[in-house]
Design brief:
This protein is mainly alpha-helical. Helix content is 70%, strand content 8%.
């Protein structure tokens, strides 16, 4: 699970992910242009996002396209929901006692 935190710790990775969410199936060069981040940095962030399974890639070379991997978010969303739920239960217990 640390992969997602590593990926999202970098503001440029978050920017790439947010941009990719708005423009699905984009190349690294299109993402670099849209984010005004260098192609090298975008490619590096995409590599981290792919390793975290938040993004998937298809094709190869300059025609490689990236898109959001919605299924990759599921384990993390489940974990966040459990944490939020436990906090809600703790607050409720405080109110009751």
């Amino acid at each position: 699970m640390s992969d997602i935190f590593k990926a999202l710790a970098n503001p440029k990775a978050r920017l790439v992910l947010e941009t990719l969410a708005k423009t699905p199936s984009s190349t690294a060069s299109k993402l670099a242009e849209a984010t005004k981040v260098s192609s090298e940095q975008v490619t590096a962030q995409l590599t981290v996002l792919v390793e975290a399974r938040l993004v998937r890639s298809t094709g190869s070379g300059t025609s490689k396209k990236y898109s959001i991997n919605a299924k990759g978010f599921t384990p993390y969303l489940t974990w966040f929901a459990k944490v939020a739920e436990s906090q809600a239960v703790a607050r409720l217990e405080q109110q009751v006692t």
